[in-house]
Amino acid sequence: MMADTHFDENGLVLAADGTPLKQSLARALRAQKIRALLLIAPLLLFVTISFVLPIGEMLMRSVQNTAGTEYIPDLMPNVVEEIQDWEPASGEMPAEPVYRALAQDLATAFENRNHTQLGRRFNYESAGMSSIFRKSGRRVSNWDIETDGPFREKFLDIDDDWGNIEYWATIKANSGYYTTSYFLAAFDAQRTSEGIQMKDPDQRIYSKLMVRTLWLSFLITFCTFALGYPVAWLLADLPAKSANMLLILVLLPFWTSLLVRTSAWKILLQQQGVINDFWIALGFTERMSLINNQLGVVIAMTHILLPFMILPLYSVMKTIPPSYLRAAKSLGATNTVAFMRVYFPQTTPGIGAGSLLVFILAVGYFITPELVGGADGTFISNRIYYQFSSSGNWGLAAALGTVMLVVVLLLYYIYDKLVGVDNVKLG
Amino acid sequence: MATKLPSYATFGQRVWFYTFRVICGLVFFYLIFPILTIIPLSFNAEDFFTFTPEMLRLDPDGYSLKHYRDFFGANGDYSWIQAFMNSVKIAPLATLIAVSLGTLAAIGLTQPHVPFKKAITALLISPMIVPLIITSAGMFFFYANIGLQGTFMGVVLAHAALGIPFVIITVTATLSSFDESLTRAAANMGADPVTTFFKVQMPLILPGVISGGLFAFITSFDEVIVVLLVGSAGQKTLPWQMFIGLREQISPTILAVATILVTISILLLTTIELLRRRSERMRGITPG
User: Fold this and answer.
1) Which residues from A are below 8 Å from B105, CB to CB?
2) CATH class assigned to B79-248
3) What interface predicted TM-score (ipTM) does this complex get?
4) Residue A235 is assigned to a structural domain of this protein
């Protein structure tokens, strides 16, 4: 019989300090978990503030109905209230109270210097609204709300477009704190008096861009696969010493600045560049246009993303014993059959990992399409950036970004299931 | 496919063997020639982006350091060297944040019992996966709210966030082969956890930490979009300057900048390779 301090009256094992062993172990486990979490916590907090919250903010912006930094219902409280009783389907202009409310709200907005922002917000939905807001601001601020009515005629005097029912329908449709109109625009749809409809085919820019982004990314992924597969195979097959030497040729571009590689291509591919000079020296008379088109994007991006295909393929191929191919051949398989039925199936995990990685990276590319893509080689990223740099429609930029984020996260999820994010290797 | 052609190989096998090598050779050429071509071009005495007849004749008059002098401001334009200095200020700070927080978290993640380990890892890796334009758009909105938009600190924080996945990946990889009994042995001999960390664990995982740091550094040193959206004119980095230069009329100084950056990459690549060999040696694996 052991010393009775190790058991309690029910026969349960006790730890040295007298607590039941089970409880003591649970406490130790909890302490371990807390320690691990405490080590992770600072980074988690940092990533939340510097990365997760910004992404969340972008998602919010895609549905918030704001002009500048303020919400539409806060900028036009009276109009929003009055216009609820008006029905665009009636085919008539809104009644006097709505115009009176507009005069009140516009005067306040003019005072706070945001009537042009209001106009710009509605202009995203219906072209032409920006100018009537801009035009009316100063005039309206001189009116007296109590005595200067009726206001409908006065507004129509400033601009006939204040009687445009489509414009009023736009205001009514966008009078809430949240709006779906940015997402509609991102999918090339619009709200008309007959409900939600697709835009005319020649005005569908975003769906065209999305299809182009996906198609070019697919093409680039295929090119990296076609070029990367033989190279990875050669590397896996060579003795370690020469493979390591050749691997430097893959790793050096991988490590070289993205901008350097893009500028190299821009310089080499241009009309008066090295490649065209060489082409002429070969005896051809016509210079090729290799840049500012889709061809340039595919050439440059395949080059830039090729290492992301070769490295996962190489690490999978290295684990396949060469004796398998020899065994297949000694059993009578031809070279083609041995490759198709024995070698290739074993490399599919590498193909999956490499292709997904290249595709995910390609879909979000910005710099290379911007610099070598010209007009018909730009991606959706470039359009989002354009909204920031020139057009200023941040809501639409956020909606396009959200759509893109959903696609990428979906691919990331598949990648995680297939490869596992903790199996990502660098170099 | 075999490494060496056996003496009994048929004609078809010979043809295939050499065809395969030629294809691979062409791909290697495609990978390396854009980078190698810009190096001699950067010594061009003229403002051309192609080889002049003098250069092809190897005439010394065809070559000069003109573009390098311009980089340092010889033509009175100091924007390149200023941009370079900005990059040199931002990247180390971002790296420091990413490495210190990332290493701690990597140690936490490799503990035996971590709740929500998969979800946390996926979250910490995601800055590498989410397209940069989306990240920068979000940062543009959010940093404006908290007063960081257009500030030096804003760019540093943003770049640190982008570098974190690399630190997590390399340090957890190194830690997965770390022998936990070493820390227990140290504790057994009376070392407190802090001493154990700095004297036992840190020296062994240092190669992983350094290569993670180098990845984080190069990420910041090479980043354009975040700087364009989160930064302002005061944070013009070298990539920003290159990007703007490439979009408008290209100045040949870019060739010199590109060559300098390629040299930096070669140095970093060599360092990482040496570190990898060292850590494999320390673990008793001969470098393969």
Assistant:
1) 39-40, 42-44
2) mainly alpha
3) 0.87
4) yes
